[in-house]
Amino acid sequence: MPSADEIPAWLKLRRRLMALQEGVGGTHAVVCALSGGVLCYGQPRRPLPESAAPESLATSQGPEALAREQKQLGGLLERVLRARPPGKDRPGTSFTVALADEEPFAFAQSFAGKYVLLVSFNGPFTPFPVVAKVRGALPAIEALTLKLPPTDGPGRGVMVWREG
What we know:
The protein is α+β, with helices and mostly antiparallel strands. It is 35% helix and 18% strand.
């Protein structure tokens, strides 16, 4: 089975996420499945507060660091999902969440009925420019995400977590 680095759609998606992350001043940009898998992430550029998100998804060292990062990312995604507006928790329902003034600082936009684009920040941010840039980038991110193999595919760069 090829590694994630050998899948053109994954490489393109990662570059798009990195560009979006830099464009909005985020610390991470991640595509997650609502079922709990991380499909692709941009290279972290800045350290995050312990409560926000993974310290470094792309540069983790060892199984303990990976487990800690997965748990932190899982906690961030769970926080975003709890913050969805009423009625937006049904399968396939589109939602947008901006946690702009409280930790963990994040912006999330669902797409394709089962994925979430998640951007984390080190501190408070202004949602309006983030919304505009995410909506501009989302069609390409969605198209590339839908080209990825199933989450049980390539091992390197693709992570799946399950809370026990």
